[in-house]
Every structure is written in structure tokens, then in C-alpha cells.
Amino acid sequence: MFQYVVERWDQIWFSSWQHFSLVVQCTVLATLIAVVLAALVYRSPQLTSIANGVSAIGLTLPSFAVIGLLIVPLGFGVVPSVVTVVFFATLPILRNAVVGLAEIPPTVVESARGIGMSRMRTLLQVELPMAWPIILSGIRVSAQMVMGIAAIAAYALGPGLGGFIFSGLSRLGGANALNSVVVGVVGVVLLALVLDLLLIGLGRLTTPRGIRVQH
Length: 215
Fold this sequence. Notes:
It contains 10 helices and no strands. With 215 residues, the protein is mostly helical. It comes from Curtobacterium caseinilyticum.
């Protein structure tokens, strides 16, 4: 195993960076999409119910099947991988964003409007900061989930450590097959831990102390 890692260190490092970059960029995009959707629906019980239903149903879909379906219209490569990862990353964040915004006391919003703040300014400066800890919890769950889904995206020839896993599985019983699988799996686990630690640090930096105490 040690020799395998040493001989392929540059490839492992590059694939790890691709994997991490794919997950981070897709999670950022998913957060933007989820927050915008949550801001549009959280005041309506009917739309909130639809959003929660879509999130629940979407999370039951097998990621492998979604990638397989996307190969037909999008082909192989980065595009189906990005679409799949963004789709699954959006779901937990959307659910948490809706919950976080809906739990803000109406009196707080009314007070902000009462001092002359516009609806958009109230959302950006009052509601979203108060809902941020709950949204961030959804981001952490999402990031851990799609770290594994990004590995499965290698089925569509997407970037990342999944290539080591599928390559090893296709040659199981052959030379270095098990080493290839172990490198891919362990690499994904380590990247997930690193990303979670970074998100914890982001939460401490971006959450006001008063809100941290409340949560």
C-alpha cells in the first residue's frame, strides 16, 4: 500500500483536489439556490409543504440512478457530475433554510419593518443572519453527503477520487485493485473530515456571538 501511494502520489493529490473542489463549488452553488428558493416559499404554508416534499422525495432517489439518467442528455464528464452533486446538495440546505426562516419570531420582522427597513433589507440583514446557524447545519449535512456522491460521479467519468474506487472494483482480484479502492475510500473520508472542520470554523467566524449562545 505504501509503495502504491508513493508511486501515484501526484495522481492521488490531483484527484483529491479535484474532488474537494467539485464538492465545495457545488455546495456553494447549492446554498445560493436553496436560500433563494427558501426566501420565496417560507411565508406560504402551501409552498413550504411543496419544498419539504421535494426535498424528502429527492433524498430517496439513488444517486447512481440519477447519474445514469443524466448521461443520456448530458453525456459523460464534468457536467452530469456537477448537476447531480448540486441537485443532492440543494435538498438538505433548502429544508433547513425554510425551517430557519420560518422560526424567526414575527415580532422581530415587524420591528425591523417598523424602523423603516425594506422587505429585502430585512431579509438580508435580519432574517438570514438569524437563520444562518440552522442553514449552516444543513450545509454541513449536505457537504458530507455529496462528498460520497461525488465519488459515485466517477461512473460518468467525473473528476475526483471515485476513479480510484471504480478502477479498483473493475479489476478486483488483480494487481493493486484493493489498494486503489482503499485509496479512494480513505481519501473521501479524510476530505469529508477536513471540509466539516472548515465549515465549523466558518460557523464560528460568521455567526454573531449572541446567536451562537441562543443555539
